[in-house]
Amino acid sequence: MSTPAVVAIVGTSAAGVSAATTLRAEGYDGRVVLLGEEVVPPYDRPPLSKGYLAGTVAADDLNLRPEGFWTDRDIDLRLGSRVVALRPAEQSVALDDGSSVRADAVILTTGGRSRALRVPGAELDGVFGLRTRADSDALREWSADAEHAVVVGMGFIGAEVAATLRSRGLAVTIVEPLSTPLERVLGEQIGRVVGELHAEHGVEMIFGDGVVGFDGANGRVTEVATTSGRRLRADLVVVGVGMVPDTAVVTGTQVAVDNGILVDEYARTSVPNVYAAGDVANHAHPFYRRRLRTEHWTHAVDHGAVAARSVLGRGDPYSTIPWVWSDQYDLALQYAGMHTGWDRLAVRGDLTARDALAFYLRDGVPVAAVTLNRNREMRRAMAILRRGQAVDADLLADETIDLREFAT
Hints:
The protein is α/β, with parallel strands linked by helices. It folds into three domains: about 5-115 and about 245-310, FAD/NAD(P)-binding domain (3-Layer(bba) Sandwich); about 115-240, FAD/NAD(P)-binding domain (3-Layer(bba) Sandwich); about 330-405, Enolase-like, domain 1 (2-Layer Sandwich), CATH 3.30.390.30. It contains ten helices and 26 strands. It has helices at about 15-25, 50-55, 60, 70, 135-145, 155-165, 185-200, 295-310, 380-385, 395; strands at about 5-10, 30-35, 75-80, 85, 90-95, 100, 105-110, 110-115, 125-130, 150, 170-175, 205, 210-215, 220-225, 230-235, 235-240, 245, 260-265, 275, 280-285, 290, 325-330, 330-335, 345-350, 355-360, 365-370. The longest helix is centred in the middle third of the chain and has 18 residues, at about 185-200. The two termini are about 40 Å apart.
């Protein structure tokens, strides 16, 4: 395999920055072009729903790399450059201004876009998604004069936004079709713990209900209509119902797409010299022996690095255990692993006090873990998940037994 003379990275996400940085760290001395649709330098997304939205984190503090980094490493960072087409046969990518960039190899790190609710009134001012820094800027500005907020969906984004808006003094109502917060990820038992936390901070939560439309006056949202017939006052609405992988750039090509861009364990797509990493990639995972599309910051960083090494012919199979964190009020929550169901929850600590480590087991094998204000224990928990062997659930829940005994 010959080393490409030019590598184009499409997307200034955490995955894109990781890919560019890894190329240079691995000694690649060819041309690296990093193309970003946004006009601001590459930034960190997790604070957008937390510290940045709250106004406690400045815009400059979001930057993934300091000023001068790109020049120092001879990375051609092009902001405000939207790639509209991938042209593998011509070894180039086309930009929206009519120009093109030569690319012997392309790494696609385009991430995703907020999933919109296709209901009447969704276009009203004051109805927000939250994916970009511009989204967070607009939401923060709008919330300064708002009193009542409705959050649609109580996954990680919805829960974090609710906590942040409460900290800004807004009355917050959440509409969630499932029976508890974060139910798909954490299950009902842990979900109830998160719900109790939000209730203590005055958040109204409506479960088992959905949204059928938004009403407004003078082009601004004023009410949310729910499936059950409720009418909720809303000076602003945040829709947090997931994201859609941004695969538009490969439309009309032979790059295979199915819930994201399909890649193998080396981040390679179905087209030679085209790679994909991060939220947009539906990747083969050797450890789980299935495909995953993971929307986590740590995944984006690790996967971007794998893609870069694959470009250089040095790739290792990507088999990192998924891991995500969430900060809500005084709760530091971490979740690791991947489950499609479990038959036992082994809890170390006290869920009611939100001081616990819990393992999800299936047929005696720990498949996922969650910590509540026990961040330091997650590394050992992940070692147990990586081992992938059955354990005695009662012993695993016994805090007198060191976790290291289950990881060896």
